[in-house]
């Protein structure tokens, strides 16, 4: 995704659009984040709430974002200003765009650091460090990496430079082609891992952990995190999908694209979870061990299985590419805004914002070592705070206002032409968009504020 001039050019083929949007959605959120937060919040009940959020909030927001992007035809700030003008609404709606631009900058600052872990693991795997490794040694490996600010900074820098180069130079074609084998590749390796996880003796336990809900483990905080993750994992609430929508040709079905993206994204996350928790339980590891979960478990599987060196190295390469195809979509709203509204061309904008994001990322790097004891909110490190603020507050807030706009402000003709649904389906969709999604988001926010005060 790049060369995003004012959206004159539309997608070379609509498949490419779906691929790029899937490339944005599928990333660290599925492989790294979903398993570890599921582990922290106790499994089944959390997963159920997450799935409900995808269905009742995520998909409607995703449709809304594509509609706004296609109708507004510009970067998120300008697209919102355009649709607001066209529908006789206040210019203040473009605040949704600002919120998104800011959220993107903050998200990428930590996303790049975590993607750096995957790059480090790719090289480790390539060198054969994981062959025959046991869970305890993988743990030591991971803590050693995290303990070194210089190593983390180095890999964060590698990811940042790479992301900037892709976005600045606009090697759109390359990335689009890469996604074509990236997604099937990731899916196939997950199937190989799934096969392995059935041999660990803990597959059923893992399945139960993910799919038998124990509601006593659920708190309002867990619900907020599940909802926030639905936004994060689908790349919604900040305008990334709006940018993609602005390239979508009129004929293409938003419904079909949106459903396909949500399905692929959810499938990859659940597969990753099944595999990772099989390894967790087979090796007596702790499900709630936090952000390191993916990195403390999968090397054990690769170290143990036939062809592990090959699959492991390929897997981490694919994780890096999945992260990269998401990263470019995270920075895209701000770059296209600079380019279209401020006359700062794509090349300059990518470097300016990339360097700013790189500097902010140093805070996340240090959160795992030197600044580990520095708490911003309650027990939260700087990384935890950035993650919480963006994923659980800024994205849902952005998404809330998008649904409100599409449900209440957008003219019926525009909505109907953007979303050609049968009467019955439109009524269902409008009900969800008008009431279910916004009320759910507000309810979760309010309940969290209320439960915090107690
Ligand atoms: N959806 C991506 C993931 O699951 O890794 C992360 C992401 C991409 C979040 C783009 C937000 C965004 F705008
Ligand atoms: Na995702």
How many E strands? 0
- What's the CATH C level? Mainly Alpha
Q: How many structural domains can be distinguished in the coordinates?
A: 1
**Overall pLDDT, averaged?**
94
pLDDT < 50 stretches: 1-9
Instruction: Report the radius of gyration as a whole number of Å.
Output: 21 Å
Family: Belongs to the sodium:neurotransmitter symporter (SNF) (TC 2.A.22) family.
Membrane topology: Multi-pass membrane protein
Transmembrane segments: 12-32, 44-63, 95-123, 152-171, 178-204, 224-247, 259-282, 309-338, 350-368, 388-410, 431-449
Subcellular location: Membrane
Note down, in words, how this protein is organized.
This protein has 454 residues and is an all-alpha fold. The chain has a single domain, classed as Amino acid/polyamine transporter I, CATH 1.20.1740. 77% of the residues lie in helices and 0% in strands. The chain contains 18 helices and no strands. Helix 7 (149-169) packs across helix 14 (308-341), helix 10 packs across helix 16 and helix 14 (308-341) crosses helix 15. The termini are far apart. The structure holds 4-fluoro-L-phenylalanine and sodium ion (NA). The site of sodium ion has 7 residues, from helix 2.
């Amino acid at each position: 995704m790049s060369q995003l001039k004012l959206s004159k050019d539309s997608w070379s083929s609509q498949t490419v659009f779906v691929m790029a949007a899937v490339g944005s959605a599928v990333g660290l959120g599925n492989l790294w984040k979903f398993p570890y937060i599921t582990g922290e919040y106790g499994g089944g009940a959390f997963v159920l709430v997450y799935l409900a959020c995808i269905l009742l909030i995520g998909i409607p927001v995703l449709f809304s974002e594509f509609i706004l992007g296609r109708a507004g035809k510009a970067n998120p700030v300008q697209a919102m200003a355009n649709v607001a003008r066209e529908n006789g609404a206040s210019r203040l709606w473009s605040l949704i765009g600002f919120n998104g631009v800011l959220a993107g900058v903050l998200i990428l600052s930590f996303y790049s650091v975590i993607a750096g872990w995957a790059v480090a693991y790719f090289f480790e795997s390539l060198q054969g460090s994981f062959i025959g490794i046991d869970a305890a040694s993988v743990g030591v490996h991971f803590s050693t990496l995290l303990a070194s600010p210089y190593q983390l900074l180095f890999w964060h820098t590698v990811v940042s430079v790479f992301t900037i180069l892709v976005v600045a130079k606009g090697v759109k074609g390359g990335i689009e082609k890469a996604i074509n084998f990236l997604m099937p590749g990731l899916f196939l390796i997950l199937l190989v891992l799934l096969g392995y996880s059935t041999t660990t003796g803990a597959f059923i336990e893992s399945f139960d952990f993910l799919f038998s809900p124990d509601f006593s483990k659920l708190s309002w905080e867990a619900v907020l995190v599940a909802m926030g993750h639905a936004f994060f994992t689908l790349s919604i609430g900040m305008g990334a999908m709006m940018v993609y929508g602005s390239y979508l040709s009129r004929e293409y079905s938003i419904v079909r694209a949106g459903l396909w993206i949500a399905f692929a994204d959810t499938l990859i996350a659940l597969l990753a979870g099944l595999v990772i928790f099989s390894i967790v339980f087979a090796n007596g590891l702790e499900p709630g061990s936090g952000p390191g979960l993916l990195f403390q478990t999968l090397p054990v599987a690769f170290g143990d299985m036939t062809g592990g060196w090959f699959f492991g190295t390929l897997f981490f390469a694919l994780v890096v590419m999945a992260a990269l195809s998401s990263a470019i979509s995270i920075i895209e709203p701000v770059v296209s805004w600079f380019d279209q509204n401020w006359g700062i061309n794509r090349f300059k904008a990518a470097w300016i914002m990339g360097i700013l994001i790189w500097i902010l990322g140093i805070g996340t790097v240090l959160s795992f070592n030197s600044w580990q004891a520095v708490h911003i909110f309650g027990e939260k490190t700087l990384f935890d705070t950035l993650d919480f603020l963006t994923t659980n507050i800024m994205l849902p807030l952005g998404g809330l206002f998008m649904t409100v706009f599409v449900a209440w402000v957008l003219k019926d003709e525009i909505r109907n032409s953007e979303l050609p649904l049968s009467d019955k389906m439109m009524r269902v969709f409008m009900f969800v968009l008008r009431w279910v999604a916004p009320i759910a988001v507000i309810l979760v926010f309010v309940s969290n504020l209320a439960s915090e005060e107690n």
